[in-house]
Amino acid sequence: MSTASDEGERARPLLSLRGINMTFGGVRALKNVSFEVMPGEVHCLAGENGSGKSTLIKVISGVYKPAAGAEIVFDGEAIPHMTPGMAQARGIQIIWQDLALFAEMSVAENIAFQTLSGARPRLVNYAAIRRIAEEALARLGVSLDVDRPLKDYAIAQRQIVAIARALVGEARIVFMDEPTASLTQSETDHLLAIVHNLSASGVAVVFVSHRLAEVLEISARITVLRDGALVGVYPVEGMTQSKITELMTGRTFDQGTRARDVSHNPVMLSVNNLSRSGEFSDISFELRRGETLGITGLLGSGRTELALTLFGMRRPASGTITLSGKPVRFASNREAIAAGVAYLSEDRLALGLNQPQSIADNLVMASLNRILSGRLISPEKKRSLVARWIADLSVKIGRQDDAISTLSGGNQQRVAIAKWLATDPKVLILDSPTVGVDVGARAGIFEIVARLAEAGLAIILISDEVPEVYFNADRVIHMEKGRIADVYDPHATTLKDLEAAVYA
């Protein structure tokens, strides 16, 4: 029989913060923020880039010390100032977007890393490390070869390794920062199932994600931040993606389809029976001037492999590619760029941009021939080119010479797009252009896409998020197991039917 004290114990938050203020260089990053999480709860922390989410997490994990007057209570214990050691001892675990794992070490060593560290050197017990790793993975219902180097595994498996490491740390609350940003839909579904299992076992999970559909699927409550201030805490029941978007940004966004009839426009790119062994087969389609052609599909559908082949990074085994009426067979991406094909990679951090380099250097990286004076780079031409595209794409920057890493994800992506627009392409391939970008910035990127298409640029928009291609493309190709399963007109089908076809 439950008692009144039992009810009070169950109702007590596991983590509670009140009056959190943080200031950096005169800028208030957090403004009197309150936040709480219940035991075993899946709680979403939502907000645009720069809203204060990461700063709040760093306060909770002891990285930052908030201004005087803050109140932090964990499991009924008041903590004047949390330190990283105190946070770990209490089971507060953070899984950052970059995972902070060691690629050269084995899966077992990554999972049991905390058991290897200490004040004094000692012999490593590899048998114990393997046992710890296997037990942690078993809790997640996952089987991996714990002796293999982590670098052998894809991002989805690395994400699981990071969660397993948190469990070894006797996690009571786990913060997941954009855990699905680089995952396909099927991988995301698996991760969300793991989150459900963690919650059922009593571990609280704070989920940070720009993918609002999964926020609604996984969370019980949503805390929304905007410009460092608390907007409110809301139950998921009755909440919609458009309502969350409005709360996060203070703006509403048009969710109507953009599809246009461009059948009268001349063909810019023609692909006929294109095949590459083990990746895709018999791919045929036409892309017209000013058209945005969407391509979607699950893991293994061959979307990115097709894009890399069109960009000259891989060679087809058979089939033909025709650009502006002329057959082409690119031996390299340099030849593709020279012919007028541009490709925005799905991996902005590793392949799209060079993080330590400046905004200006990143933007001109693919178009150096346009800023030469003789055989040397002209600083004046460079500044002019950068200024033009920064203004045209409304990129928010301080100085051109600032490192690209100083920009938000949305502004970094605009620079990445500008880098390829500066090459004056005929065809622009956008591979998952909104990965790691918040909802407000996403809308801005798709406004850019629509404007470019209106100006006559032929665009291939690749995404595993069906709503992105449904609302922003003129036609949608569904790829499945390396083949074209069907082609859809957004005006002639519903989003629900397209999602059912892709996710079936």
From TrEMBL:
<keyword id="KW-1003">Cell membrane</keyword>
<keyword id="KW-0677">Repeat</keyword>
<keyword id="KW-0067">ATP-binding</keyword>
<keyword id="KW-0813">Transport</keyword>
<keyword id="KW-1278">Translocase</keyword>
<keyword id="KW-0762">Sugar transport</keyword>
<dbReference type="InterPro" id="IPR017871">
    <property type="entry name" value="ABC_transporter-like_CS"/>
</dbReference>
<feature type="domain" description="ABC transporter">
    <location>
        <begin position="15"/>
        <end position="252"/>
    </location>
</feature>
<dbReference type="InterPro" id="IPR050107">
    <property type="entry name" value="ABC_carbohydrate_import_ATPase"/>
</dbReference>
<protein>
    <submittedName>
        <fullName>Simple sugar transport system ATP-binding protein</fullName>
    </submittedName>
</protein>
<comment type="similarity">
    <text>Belongs to the ABC transporter superfamily.</text>
</comment>
<dbReference type="GO" id="GO:0005524">
    <property type="term" value="F:ATP binding"/>
</dbReference>
<keyword id="KW-0547">Nucleotide-binding</keyword>
<keyword id="KW-0472">Membrane</keyword>
<dbReference type="GO" id="GO:0016887">
    <property type="term" value="F:ATP hydrolysis activity"/>
</dbReference>
<dbReference type="InterPro" id="IPR003439">
    <property type="entry name" value="ABC_transporter-like_ATP-bd"/>
</dbReference>
<dbReference type="InterPro" id="IPR027417">
    <property type="entry name" value="P-loop_NTPase"/>
</dbReference>
<dbReference type="InterPro" id="IPR003593">
    <property type="entry name" value="AAA+_ATPase"/>
</dbReference>
<feature type="domain" description="ABC transporter">
    <location>
        <begin position="257"/>
        <end position="504"/>
    </location>
</feature>
<dbReference type="Pfam" id="PF00005">
    <property type="entry name" value="ABC_tran"/>
</dbReference>
